[in-house]
Automatic annotation (TrEMBL):
<dbReference type="InterPro" id="IPR025476">
    <property type="entry name" value="Helitron_helicase-like"/>
</dbReference>
<protein>
    <recommendedName>
        <fullName>Helitron helicase-like domain-containing protein</fullName>
    </recommendedName>
</protein>
<dbReference type="Pfam" id="PF14214">
    <property type="entry name" value="Helitron_like_N"/>
</dbReference>
<feature type="domain" description="Helitron helicase-like">
    <location>
        <begin position="2"/>
        <end position="175"/>
    </location>
</feature>
């Protein structure tokens, strides 16, 4: 960011949000139109499928094969996300289950953001600033984790960037440690994760950031309308947790962290909260980055698929439902991707800047294995099928 930047575009309030979203949607639509235009002529089908069609007496390729698909080369599409999920699961096959699950959310009150706002600016109206500062924080976090070995030596990792509907970006890290750094006992878990209020006199700064970022909002009988509440009136994150004198292995994905009933309490929105409401965190990282940064130990192998699918679930969508007497039998993947798409201003800016939306530490090479005569083929719909079958370059 340049000091004293007087660009009118960056200081037009909510219009910058609208401008950034409109600009990115135009870019994305142009890219999707490229794929849609190519598929008006091209089809894909297995070699054996073409043989079956020819055997039935058909020679026209216009009605053969799949079309109007969103290929895996389109970043952020469902095929791309599935491919990345499979790549991430390959890390598990090679290095074992993940050891640490870390979630970091952008703090709009970071000095790097506040110091570059004019008196009339609001942070939500500067998506360019939010995305660039958050990316810088992620790079700094990666250096702490993978170069300074904050949690130990890392064998492999993957992370994704997501955008909440209210606009703030956040990231999910899955970290696999090397054998000499792995944690097996609750005592080792306590060296990394804390789920209690710190002493406000011995660690006043840490106490303040825990209260500011790591307290779960009052829910249940205190606030039945909290967004975390299911229809059965239970918190989807199972807060408040139970008190526990010691950290111990849990029955589900994560350990049961130490949450002592030591009388520590804090008042939030006229409600009294204690250690049962603390979101697990790492004291050093929380104090350094001053934002919501949840750190969890992955103690059970059953958590692997759930967590990896969670971080590769794809973009947000608006919920709606339409019914028709005759549904179109052709699945238009490009149209489905665009329908009900939710794009916020920070996501638009992030994509315009071409920042990474996800990253995996190891390269994974996809091998296209197939049965004999079942290799995938691309063909022009205007070309006779008999010519396609005889073309050695395609078969």
């Amino acid at each position: 960011m340049r000091n004293g930047d007087q660009s009118n575009l960056l200081h037009i309030g909510r219009l910058l949000q609208q401008y950034s979203v409109d600009t990115y949607v135009k870019l994305e639509t142009s890219r999707l139109e490229f794929h849609r235009g190519k598929q008006n002529k091209l089809r894909t089908e297995a070699y054996q499928g073409l043989l079956d069609v020819i055997a039935k007496g058909f020679t026209n390729a216009s009605n053969v094969g799949k079309h109007i698909i969103l290929p895996a080369s389109f970043i952020g599409g469902p095929r791309d996300m599935r491919r990345r999920y499979m790549d991430a699961m390959t890390l598990v096959q090679r290095y074992g289950k993940p050891d640490i699950f870390l979630t970091m959310t952008c703090n709009p009150s970071w000095p790097e953001i506040k110091n570059h706002l004019l008196e009339t600016d609001e942070c939500q109206n500067r998506p360019d600033l939010i995305t660039r500062v958050f990316r810088a924080k992620i790079e700094q976090l990666k250096e702490d984790l993978f170069k300074k070995h904050l949690f130990g030596h890392v064998a492999a990792y993957t992370y994704v960037i997501e955008f909440q509907k209210r606009g703030l970006p956040h990231t999910h890290f899955l970290i696999i440690l090397k054998e000499q750094s792995k944690m097996f006992s609750p005592k080792e878990y306590d060296n990394i994760v804390c789920a209690e209020l710190p002493d406000r006199h011995q660690s006043p700064y840490l106490y303040s950031v825990v209260i500011k970022h790591m307290l779960h909002s009052p829910c249940g009988s205190m606030n039945p309308s909290n967004p975390c509440m299911w229809q059965n009136h239970k918190c989807r994150n199972n807060y408040p947790k139970d008190f526990s004198k010691y950290t111990k292995h849990g029955k589900n994905f994560y350990p049961i962290y130490k949450r002592q009933d030591d009388g520590s309490k804090v008042y939030i929105r006229q409600h009294e909260l204690d250690n049962r409401w603390i979101v697990p965190y790492n004291p050093y990282i929380l104090a350094k980055y001053d934002c919501h940064i949840n750190v969890e130990i992955c103690s059970a192998i059953e958590a692997v698929k759930y967590i990896y699918k969670y971080i590769y679930k794809g973009h947000d969508r608006v919920m709606y439902q339409l019914t028709a007497e005759q549904a179109d039998k052709i699945i238009y993947e490009i149209k489905n991707f665009q329908s009900a798409r939710w794009v916020c201003a920070p996501e638009a800016m992030w994509r315009i800047y071409a920042f990474d939306l996800n990253l995996i530490s190891s390269s994974v090479i996809l091998l296209h294995l197939h049965l004999e005569n079942y290799q995938s083929m691309s063909l022009d719909k205007n070309r006779p099928l008999t010519d396609v079958i005889q073309d050695d370059r395609l078969s």
